[in-house]
Amino acid sequence: MVDSEAPKNQLLCLGLNYRTTPVEVRERVAFPEARVAEAVQQVQTLKGFEESVVLSTCNRVEIYSTHTHKQAEAAHDELITYLVNRFELAPEQAEALVTYKLDAAEAARHLFRVVSGLDSMVLGETEIFGQVKAAYQLALNSGTTGRTLNKLFQQAFSVGKKVRNETNIQRGSTSVGSVAVDLAEKVHDLKQCRVMLVGAGEMSRTCAQSLLSRGAKSIIVSNRSHERAVELATEMGGKALKFDEWEGSMHEVDVIISSTSAPHFVIRPDQIQQVMKKRRWEPLLIIDIAVPRDVDPLVNGIEGVYLYDIDALQAIADEGRREREKQLFVCEQIIEEQLNKYGFA
Amino acid sequence: MPPDRQILMLATLAFLAGVVSAVRALLSGNWRPRHQWVAMLIGFALQTTAVYLRGQAVGQCPMKSLSDILIFISWSIVLLYFLVGSTYRVSLLGIFTAPLVSAMHVLAFSVPKSFPDYAEKVKVDPYVELHAALALVAYAAFALACITGVMYLLQERFLKQHRIGGLFYQLPPIQGLARAIQRLVLLGLVLLSVSLSVSFKLQTPISNPKLIFAWAVWVLYAIIGFIMWRHVLSPRQTAWLASVGFIIPFISLWLVTSHG
Predict the structure, then answer these.
(1) Residue A210: C-alpha distances to residues A287, A305, B218 (Å)
(2) Which residues, in sequence order, are bridge partners of residue A67?
């Protein structure tokens, strides 16, 4: 005989992210990568819990689960208690633990938004898709997913792909570093791209790292303090150049990122004209991050030279953010349609 | 209307669908490369069938009237687009190719006395057919160099004026475009050189204007090729040359066919 009173398997999501919880608390309850498999199994063994997936990134910790509690609140409390015990939080830390507690359709909507990058700090970023996929795969391998979560996560991946394919949510750059990469990619084949840093400021380092992480071929660092240049070059696997030598090597690179503290222009049109002659018209991208500027703006008038100062980079990044925000409504509509399609509405 | 013309009409519609898709993409900034590619593929399949049927109907390679020449060149353009497009961005080259091919089809239908019947040939000279076909495929390579030149000029303008958005993200790097122009001009030049060397072996005489114009086009592109090879001009200037230069072979075709 079937027990009609038997509680149904219900979906829930308990989480905290960069919006709800400060980093001091987030880092306290983040699951190290090597302990996530253990965590999904611990959640599964909690009273009334059946399936579980744990997503732990630098910006969020979320537990997706199914339970048979009659009251959803009881299941949420059970998970909070688990987190407090698991991370041995002091009462005041437990007090500061602000979480969101989502059930059924709300939990599905949240996961669909997360996978699509709509809940990310950088709207539309793509890394989260891979992180959710890895979290699900780990739970699947640990045997803690069942019919409900398997279906939900497959649906989420399909929604994530749909949102990215049918909207421009991931297009454009939203940070100075990514604008630099986009520009370099539209001037050169990045894999053949040689980069020179003139001045070793923090932002030029960020730009150079973005370029290297996307496959730039090599890097040369030149700085007034040669030790600093050597240190940075070593960190990025490049070559250091004495500060009085960088001008002679300009024709050998495809991207120059300048950020010296000089009070005057250090790159002038007459120099670049000579460089372009040696380069036989191969295009040159110059990114001037310095304030006051290092590069005479007249350089942009030289054939084959593309000059961007910090304001230009910032304006492009701002425009990228605005463009993504404009797409938000379309993305939400797609998610609502898909929630209806999968019977969550 | 004969079957080849009916199929050609359908091919035109397929390419126009590609144009609509390109315009929609430009207006919305939402790119669907697959839509473009499918439209081009359907258009190409129909175009090939139409050229084949037309060849059967006239008993030779259909390259005698201006309408036939336009169709043959547009067929070669689409063929080259599929062959060379993968070396950079097929989808985007399609966005620029579809309007050109559609315009050539519309022009082929609109010229006076389009698709005339040919006087029956007693004997088909394979060298004449080879000479003409190679010359027209060479012209198609120049047409693609022209399209790539336009793409270069657009991307160069976006980069210089800091207009980063929409089409900018879809266009390939300017360095790649500059190289693509060089390769396409070289390809066209090699094909035209072979075509002209075949003309020395012809037994059937070809009208003088045809040969003179073909040589004029060869000289023009040899100069452009030399300028590119020696880096005499900047890539932007050579992109202009490749884009504007195509007007000469295009006009020459008109003049040649009007001289019979």
Answers:
(1) 13, 21, 46
(2) A10, A49
- Give per-residue pLDDT as tens, B142-172: 988 998 899 899 999 999 999 887 778 878 8
Secondary structure letter of residue A70 according to DSSP: S
Does A284 score more than 80 pLDDT? yes
**Helix A147-166 / helix A310-341 crossing angle, nearest 10 deg:** 130
Give B-chain residues touching A188 at CB under 8 angstroms. Answer: 173, 175
φ, ψ of residue A98 to 5 degrees: the values are -90, 120
Mean pLDDT over A291-306 rounds to 94
Residue ranges of domains in chain B: 1-124, 126-260
Per-residue H/E/C for A96-142: CCCCEEEEHHHHHHHHHHHHCCCCCCCCCCCHHHHHHHHHHHHHHHH
Task: Flag if B30 and A306 touch (Cβ within 8 Å).
Answer: no
Q: Does B123 touch chain A (CB under 8 A)?
A: no
Element (H, E) at A94: helix A91-95
Scanning the structure block, which residue is given the tokens 């308990």? A14
Degrees (nearest 5) of the Cα angle B196, B201, B206? 65
Q: Where are the domains positioned within chain A?
A: 10-166, 176-317
- Token pair of A25 as six digits: 């608390």
What CA–CA distance (Å, rounded) separates A38 from A135? Answer: 12
Global model pTM greater than 0.95: no
Q: What is the CATH number of domain A10-166?
A: 3.30.460.30
Structure tokens at B3: 């079957």
- Dump pLDDT digits (tens) for B181-190: 998 899 999 9
Taking a C-beta distance cutoff of 8 angstroms, is the pair A119, A17 a contact?
A: yes
Q: Which CATH superfamily is domain A176-317 in?
A: NAD(P)-binding Rossmann-like Domain (3.40.50.720)
**Which residues on B lie below 8 Å from A217 (Cβ)?**
none
Of A182, A186, A304, the CB nearest to B155: A186
B161 touches chain A (CB under 8 A): no
What residue ranges of chain B have pLDDT lower than 70? Answer: 26-34, 85-94, 120-124, 203-207, 256-260
Interface probe, candidates A179, A182, A186, chain B, greatest B C-beta count within 10 A: A186
Instruction: Say what the ipTM of the complex is.
Output: 0.78
Report how far residue A219's alpha carbon sits from residue A246's, in angstroms, rounded to the nearest whole number: 12
- What's the pLDDT score for residue A156? 96
Active site residues of A: 58
- For helices A176-187 and B126-160, the axis angle rounded to 10 degrees is 150
Q: How far apart are CA A99 and CA B91, in angstroms?
A: 45
Q: What does the alpha-carbon distance between residue A216 and residue A191 come to, in Å, rounded to a whole number?
A: 5
